[in-house]
C-alpha cells in the first residue's frame, strides 16, 4: 500500500464549505488572501472562517507578493503560509510559521535548484504555468517533469478533479494534492458532491 496522500481544499469562502471539508477528513483548508483572485477573502472573513476549523485540520493562508504587514495581520488565524508569488526565501521565513512555496511549472524551471533555494519550506507546491496568473488556472501540466528524487515533499496542484486524481496520484505519488476549481460549482463556491467524490478517489488511488 502506498503512503496516504494528504488533501488540501483551497479557495474556501463559506462556512458550509469549511464544515463539509472538515467532515470529509481533509488535512488542510486554504484561504486566498490575494485580492485579485475570484476566491479572495478579507482578513475579517478569514477570522470568521478560521475559528470554525476543527483541531488537526491545518489552516493555510495563500499570499501573492503581498506586504508583510498584511501577512502578520492574518497570522493569528493561520497554521501554515503558502507563498504563491515571487517571494524570496528570506521573506517567507520571517513570520515564524511553517510555510510552503508554490512554483509554477514554466518551461525553464529547475526544481532541484528551487528546492535548495527554498530549503526551509515544508514542501513545494507545483502548479501549472500561465503568464500573468499566479495560480487557479484550472490547467494541468506534464507530471513527468517532476523529478522522483526531489529533495522536498511535493504538493501537486493544477487542474485536479475527481476524474484525473487517480492518475495523478499513481504517476506522481505526491505527499499531498491541492484542489480548488475541481470541486466548485462556481469560483469560491464548493460543490459538496464534487468534494466528497474527490476525497473518495484519492483514498481509492492510495489503496492500490
Automatic annotation (TrEMBL):
Enzyme nomenclature, EC number: 5.3.1.24
Keywords for the protein's UniProt record, in alphabetical order: Amino-acid biosynthesis, Aromatic amino acid biosynthesis, Isomerase, Tryptophan biosynthesis
Domain called N-(5'phosphoribosyl) anthranilate isomerase (PRAI): residue spans: 8-200
Keyword Nucleotide-binding applies: no
One Pfam family from the record: PRAI
GO terms, molecular function: phosphoribosylanthranilate isomerase activity
Primary enzyme class: isomerase
Keyword Repeat included in the entry's annotation: no
Biological pathway: Amino-acid biosynthesis; L-tryptophan biosynthesis; L-tryptophan from chorismate: step 3/5
InterPro entries noted in UniProt: Aldolase_TIM (IPR013785), PRAI_dom (IPR001240), RibuloseP-bd_barrel (IPR011060), TrpF_fam (IPR044643)
Reaction equations catalysed: N-(5-phospho-beta-D-ribosyl)anthranilate = 1-(2-carboxyphenylamino)-1-deoxy-D-ribulose 5-phosphate
Gene3D superfamilies given in the database record: Aldolase class I (3.20.20.70)
Family: Belongs to the TrpF family.
UniProt-listed PANTHER family: N-(5'-PHOSPHORIBOSYL)ANTHRANILATE ISOMERASE (PTHR42894:SF1)
This protein's name: N-(5'-phosphoribosyl)anthranilate isomerase
Source species: Vreelandella zhaodongensis (Halomonas zhaodongensis)
Amino acid at each position: 500500500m502506498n503512503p496516504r496522500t494528504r488533501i488540501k481544499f483551497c479557495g474556501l469562502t463559506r462556512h458550509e464549505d469549511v464544515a463539509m471539508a472538515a467532515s470529509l477528513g481533509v488535512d488542510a483548508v486554504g484561504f486566498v488572501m490575494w485580492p485579485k483572485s475570484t476566491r479572495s477573502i478579507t482578513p475579517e472573513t478569514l477570522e470568521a472562517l478560521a475559528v470554525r476549523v476543527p483541531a488537526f485540520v491545518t489552516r493555510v493562508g495563500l499570499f501573492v507578493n503581498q506586504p508583510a504587514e498584511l501577512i502578520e495581520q492574518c497570522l493569528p488565524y493561520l497554521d501554515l503560509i503558502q507563498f504563491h508569488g515571487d517571494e524570496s526565501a528570506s521573506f517567507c521565513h520571517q513570520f515564524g510559521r511553517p510555510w510552503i512555496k508554490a512554483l509554477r511549472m514554466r518551461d525553464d524551471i529547475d526544481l532541484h535548484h528551487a528546492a535548495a533555494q527554498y530549503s526551509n519550506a515544508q514542501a513545494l507546491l507545483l502548479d501549472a504555468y500561465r503568464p500573468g496568473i499566479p495560480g487557479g488556472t484550472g490547467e494541468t501540466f506534464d507530471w513527468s517533469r517532476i523529478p522522483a528524487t526531489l529533495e522536498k515533499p511535493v504538493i501537486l496542484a493544477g487542474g485536479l478533479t475527481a476524474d484525473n486524481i487517480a492518475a495523478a496520484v499513481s504517476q506522481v505519488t505526491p505527499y499531498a494534492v491541492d484542489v480548488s476549481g475541481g470541486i466548485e460549482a462556481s469560483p469560491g463556491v464548493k460543490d459538496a458532491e464534487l468534494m466528497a467524490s474527490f476525497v473518495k478517489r484519492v483514498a481509492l488511488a492510495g489503496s492500490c
